[in-house]
Every structure is written in structure tokens, then in C-alpha cells.
């Protein structure tokens, strides 16, 4: 099972069969220890008997939304997966809460453009996005570092994409933003070395992001900042030490 849709339908089938231990084993290794079969069982049982399963709707390459009707009413089961088809999140949401992401009111899509980029080279290169304001260069810029787990560049959780909100909002105000998929998402299947560390997870791509911005024609290389959320905030000072050109840090809920 490698697609979100296949994984999502398998989870629902296993839940109906009562095999919650197998669902637990479908989570990514970093999360498996945080999930118990009993918690999954009680969460599913709270919905009542399953009546019907609708047509899954993919939301990008990592999220699927499956309309499901239980005894308690209509819901949407939202599942997030990594590139190996392993679960990184499961939510049972009211129908209205499971709508796709929409841009925040403070983002003006007419004021910026987005460019696909690649950070690093070789087998562990990761994809990213640079959001560039339609303003006269040079502009300040910021690299976004996501929190723990195999996060995508938007820090997608259910319908929420906080890093996309930030990127579009900051770009609407004249700041270039670079965000990228974590290596644990893009290459989770290949990361089997037990010596792989937190520094390996963050520093190479963060340094590459800073250097890419420094060479970008729209960016003022003396005004490149790093914004880290959660574990990304904890690691942000190490990025500044490793890449001394960083002008400053924004730490959001760091340890």
C-alpha cells in the first residue's frame, strides 16, 4: 500500500474487523510508540456502528479524506501518510471541519509567485517551494523549519496548513519564504541507519535553504532569517551556528 487512498481504505477495513493492533503497526516508526491499539479501538467505537463508506478524495500526495457514515452521523476520516504509505495521522472529523484548506484572509494571491526548488543533491535531496513577492528586490527572506515527524512543507495536519498560511501571509507583506518537505517525509524509506541523528534530519537541508536564498535574485543576503516551529524551533539555534550568515531566528513553541 503506497497511496493515501489505499492506506485509508485498509485502515477502515481493519477497524471494522477489530484489528487495531495492525493499524498501530501501520504508523510511521517515529509515531508507533505514541499510539496504542486500545486508544484506536475506543476512538472508533465512540462513533457507533459503521453504516457506509463513501468515495475517497485525495488532498495532494499525502492526505486522503474518506466520507464515512456512522450510527452517530456523517463524518470524514482524514488520514495522512508518508511516501512509504505509513500513517502519520488519523482524524475523525465532522463533515464541515474536514473541508479542504483555504487561503487565510490575510494572504493576497495577486502579490506573489511560487517556485519549485530542490534542496541538496544526491539520493536525499528534498523538494521545496519559494514564495516570492512581486516587489522590487532585494527583499528579506525566511526559511521555515517544521516540527517533529515526517512533515511536508506546509506542516499539513488535517485541513490545516500552517506553514502555507505563513508563507502566503508573509509574502503578501514583502518577505520571501522558503519551505520544504522534511527528509523524513521525502526519504523515510531510505533512512534506516540507526546513527541518523536530529542534526542529520535538520541541518543539511536548512543550510542548503539559507544558501539557496542567499543566491536568489530577489533576496537581500544580509537579511535571511530562520523560523522554526516546535522541534524546528529547538533546532533553529544550531542552524544559525552552522550557517553564520543567518540574520536572526524566530522560535515558535520551541523546546
Supply the key terms.
255 residues; alpha/beta
Radius of gyration: 20 Å
Main pleated-sheet profile: 6 strands, mixed
Q: What shape does the CA trace take?
A: globular
Helix percentage range: 25-40%
Number of helices: 8
Low-confidence stretches: none
Oligomer: single chain
Number of strands: 11
N-to-C series of helices and strands: HHHHEEEEEEEEHEHHEHE
Strands of the biggest beta sheet: in what spatial order?
6-7-9-8-10-11
Ends distance: 35 Å
Which structural class is indicated by helix and strand composition?
alpha/beta
Report on this structure.
It is a single chain. With 255 residues, this protein is of the alpha/beta class. It contains eight helices and eleven strands. The protein has helices at residues 4-17, 20-25, 29-32, 37-45, 162-171, 183-186, 198-214, 231-242, and strands at 50-53, 57-59, 63-70, 73-81, 87-94, 112-119, 126-133, 139-145, 176-180, 219-229, 248-252. Strands 6-7-9-8-10-11 form a six-stranded mixed β-sheet, sandwiched between helices. Strands 1, 2, 3, 4 and 5 form a five-stranded antiparallel β-sheet that branches. A hairpin with a 5-residue loop joins β4 (73-81) and β5. α7 (198-214) crosses α8 (231-242).
Describe the structure concisely.
By secondary structure, the chain is an alpha/beta fold.
Give the helices and strands, then pairings.
Layout: H1 4-17, H2 20-25, H3 29-32, H4 37-45, E1 50-53, E2 57-59, E3 63-70, E4 73-81, E5 87-94, E6 112-119, E7 126-133, E8 139-145, H5 162-171, E9 176-180, H6 183-186, H7 198-214, E10 219-229, H8 231-242, E11 248-252
Parallel strand pairs: 8-9, 8-10, 10-11
Antiparallel strand pairs: 1-3, 2-3, 3-4, 4-5, 6-7, 7-9
Helix pairs in contact: 7-8
Amino acid at each position: 500500500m503506497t497511496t493515501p487512498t489505499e492506506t485509508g481504505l485498509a485502515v477502515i477495513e481493519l477497524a471494522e474487523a477489530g484489528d487495531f493492533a495492525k493499524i498501530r503497526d501501520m504508523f510511521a516508526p517515529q509515531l508507533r510508540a505514541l499510539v496504542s491499539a486500545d486508544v484506536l479501538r475506543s476512538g472508533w467505537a465512540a462513533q457507533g456502528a459503521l453504516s457506509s463508506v463513501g468515495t475517497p478524495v485525495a488532498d495532494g500526495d499525502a492526505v486522503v479524506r474518506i466520507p464515512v457514515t456512522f450510527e452517530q452521523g456523517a463524518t470524514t476520516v482524514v488520514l495522512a501518510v508518508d511516501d512509504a504509505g505509513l500513517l502519520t495521522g488519523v482524524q475523525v472529523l465532522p463533515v464541515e471541519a474536514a473541508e479542504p484548506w483555504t487561503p487565510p484572509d490575510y494572504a493576497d494571491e495577486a502579490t506573489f509567485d511560487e517556485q519549485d526548488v530542490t534542496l541538496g543533491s544526491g539520493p536525499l535531496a528534498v523538494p521545496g517551494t519559494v514564495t516570492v513577492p512581486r516587489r522590487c528586490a532585494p527583499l528579506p527572506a525566511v526559511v521555515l523549519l517544521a516540527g517533529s515527524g515526517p512533515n511536508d512543507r506546509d506542516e499539513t495536519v488535517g485541513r490545516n496548513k500552517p506553514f502555507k498560511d505563513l508563507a502566503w501571509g508573509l509574502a503578501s507583506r514583502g518577505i520571501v519564504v522558503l519551505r520544504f518537505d522534511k527528509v523524513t517525509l521525502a526519504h523515510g524509506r531510505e533512512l534506516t541507519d540507526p546513527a541518523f541523528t536530529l542534526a542529520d534530519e535538520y541541518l543539511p537541508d536548512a543550510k542548503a535553504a539559507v544558501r539557496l536564498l542567499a543566491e536568489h535574485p530577489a533576496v537581500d543576503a544580509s537579511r535571511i532569517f530562520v523560523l522554526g516551529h516546535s522541534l524546528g524551533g529547538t533546532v533553529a539555534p544550531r542552524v544559525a551556528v552552522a550557517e553564520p550568515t543567518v540574520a536572526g531566528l524566530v522560535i515558535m513553541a520551541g523546546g
